[in-house]
């Protein structure tokens, strides 16, 4: 039986007896219904995996004995910051989930001219917590030991400024002949993805003025939730860790 990988925001150290945080404890005790003596693989975002044995298990409280940590080698040396325009329903969840699987470092939800999702106040906070939970679940599933941060929603001007530390900034735009495989290898990439209706001409111009390079992935127009997955897969293939083993 596969040993479950569980994220916890609790401190972990070898030989310690630790209580899992509420979300992790409920998942282990209520959903998985695990019992004392069973094994887990824990991670808390510090880059290590921690084997652990359950010492106490209930529906709301789980204690474990932590074993010897080992470094997790699943993180790519290529950092990718994703600026993803908000979309309705499960499409944003899909984009977040698959971006984590592709090795994204940070996800920035964006609002653009043709974006039909408006988030403010409590509604924004609720969606951010939901997307962070999606990211945690994806990290558990794909074997990562770091969970990408989902930051608060930004306007394009805020995104342009915040992504200034990336040495390559790209905006996906199907009406260009520039392709990824002609570019020099970067260390940190910012990817900007538009909404279902595409970015407006003014937004493309603003992105270019801010230092973003328009690139095309091919002759077909991709959906807003498909584009980041395809783009990151290509970035990891060209400059990251896909195909490097």
From TrEMBL:
Which region ranges are annotated with the description Disordered?
A: 1-20
Q: Its Enzyme Commission number?
A: 2.1.1.193
Q: Which UniProt keywords apply?
A: Cytoplasm, Methyltransferase, rRNA processing, S-adenosyl-L-methionine, Transferase
User: Which residue range or ranges hold the Ribosomal RNA small subunit methyltransferase E methyltransferase domain?
Assistant: 75-235
Source taxon at top rank: Bacteria
- What sort of enzyme, by top EC class, is this? transferase
Q: What does the entry give for GO biological process?
A: rRNA base methylation
Function summary = Specifically methylates the N3 position of the uracil ring of uridine 1498 (m3U1498) in 16S rRNA. Acts on the fully assembled 30S ribosomal subunit.
Task: Name the protein family.
Answer: Belongs to the RNA methyltransferase RsmE family.
Q: Which reaction does it catalyse?
A: uridine(1498) in 16S rRNA + S-adenosyl-L-methionine = N(3)-methyluridine(1498) in 16S rRNA + S-adenosyl-L-homocysteine + H(+)
Annotated source species: Marinobacter salarius
Give its localization: Cytoplasm
Locate the Ribosomal RNA small subunit methyltransferase E PUA-like domain: which residues?
20-66
A single Pfam family it belongs to is: PUA_4
InterPro entries attached to this UniProt entry: Alpha/beta_knot_MTases, PUA-like_sf, RsmE, RsmE_MTase_dom, RsmE_PUA-like, tRNA_m1G_MTases_N
**Its GO CC terms?**
cytoplasm
Q: Which GO terms describe its molecular function?
A: rRNA (uridine-N3-)-methyltransferase activity
Q: What is this protein called?
A: Ribosomal RNA small subunit methyltransferase E
